[in-house]
Amino acid sequence: MQLFGCVQSSTLGEALVARYEQLQEEHAQLELPEISLEVFCLIDHLIWSRMIDLPDNNPVSLVPLIDFANHR
Predict the structure, then answer these.
(1) First to last CA, the chain
(2) Which of 13, 21, 31, 59 could covalently link to 8 via disulfide, CB atoms 3.0 to 4.6 Å apart?
(3) Helices 11-30, 37-48: inter-axial angle, 10-degree rounding
(4) What's the Cα-to-Cα distance from 49 to each of 28, 31, 32, 37, rounded to whole Å?
């Protein structure tokens, strides 16, 4: 969390702290000793960074390889 010192007193900082608190609770509830909290957070970030909001019946979708869309 020390990386967020520059946004700590902003609404972004508050949202990040709330999200990490939620992830800590989820990690504790799942009782996965082989996966550290840090790795659990990285997995969460990896998945959510590849989500895309699509219209119609699928409000949120995971699109494989979407991160290559901005490369030539």
Answers:
(1) 34
(2) 13
(3) 120
(4) 23, 24, 23, 18
